[in-house]
């Protein structure tokens, strides 16, 4: 949240300077709109991209040395998750699944398969609604806690969180301060939910791929399953090892 405070403080100082200056040399009203508009633009972008760390500190990649990368999946579990798990097992890879609470309720057996496969799970809120950016702190907190409590039935106390759509705001920052979750971002966004061409999705990943990368995928479509197999083959060829994000970042995934 430090960047947000610095940005807000800077533009407030600019406006204060303009007001003081106008005492001696009156300014047109539109001059005051310039810093205000810039503040809105920067804040909007900072809220939309979790990697900026604008409202909350996020972990977006691991060490560039070594040969480890992390593949992460959002929005599951779904029926496609089973195919993802089969591929990960086939190529001896581990991944991290940021799960939606209501999806866990729909597919408890698949969720258990993720855990039994040695993969890591994280919190992706309970409902994953686009309007969450307008929720109060208490409402966001309830979304996070409800999923935590659901997962705790499997004996796991979640430490990792990924904001829906990568969107953050001051209310989410306050909620996360209370829960203590580590926020996990990414440095490679596949756009597999909006791009239909599998080759294009794969190219977006491979052209950015390097040790320490955290890749964002979604275990929600056959298209992504197809891309995943090609990616896992490439990782073998390049001697890159897919590990869970907690191993890549050397942080705990669960409460002890």
TrEMBL record:
The chain crosses the membrane at residues 7-24, 30-54. GO terms for molecular function: hydrolase activity. Its EC number is 3.-.-.-. It holds the Pfam family Polysacc_deac_1. Residues 67-243 form the NodB homology domain. Keywords: Hydrolase, Membrane, Transmembrane, Transmembrane helix. It is an enzyme of class 3 (hydrolase). PANTHER family: GLYCOSYL TRANSFERASE-RELATED (PTHR10587). This is Polysaccharide deacetylase family protein. The lineage of its organism: Bacteria, Pseudomonadati, Bacteroidota, Flavobacteriia, Flavobacteriales.
């Amino acid at each position: 949240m430090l960047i947000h405070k610095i940005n807000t403080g800077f533009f407030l100082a600019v406006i204060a300077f303009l007001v003081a200056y106008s005492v001696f040399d009156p300014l047109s009203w539109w001059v005051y709109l310039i810093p205000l508009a810039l503040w809105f633009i920067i804040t909007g972008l900072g809220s939309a991209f979790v990697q900026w760390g604008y409202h909350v500190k996020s972990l977006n990649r691991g060490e560039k040395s070594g040969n480890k990368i992390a593949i992460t999946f959002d929005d599951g579990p779904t029926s496609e998750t089973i195919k993802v798990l089969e591929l990960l097992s086939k190529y001896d890879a581990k991944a991290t699944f940021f799960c939606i609470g209501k999806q866990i309720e729909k597919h408890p057996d698949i969720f258990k398969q993720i855990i039994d496969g040695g993969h890591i799970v994280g919190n992706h809120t309970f409902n994953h609604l686009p309007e969450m950016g307008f929720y109060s702190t208490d409402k966001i907190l309830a979304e996070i806690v409800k999923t935590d409590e659901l997962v705790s039935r499997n004996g796991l106390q979640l430490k990792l969180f990924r904001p829906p759509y990568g969107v953050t705001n001051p209310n989410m920052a306050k909620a996360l301060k209370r829960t203590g979750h580590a926020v996990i971002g990414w440095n490679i966004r596949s756009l597999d939910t909006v791009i239909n061409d599998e080759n294009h999705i794969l190219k977006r990943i491979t052209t950015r791929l390097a040790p320490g990368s955290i890749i964002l995928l979604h275990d929600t479509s056959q298209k992504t399953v197809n891309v995943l197999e090609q990616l896992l083959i490439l990782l073998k060829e390049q001697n890159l090892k897919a590990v869970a994000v907690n191993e890549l970042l050397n942080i705990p995934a669960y409460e002890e």
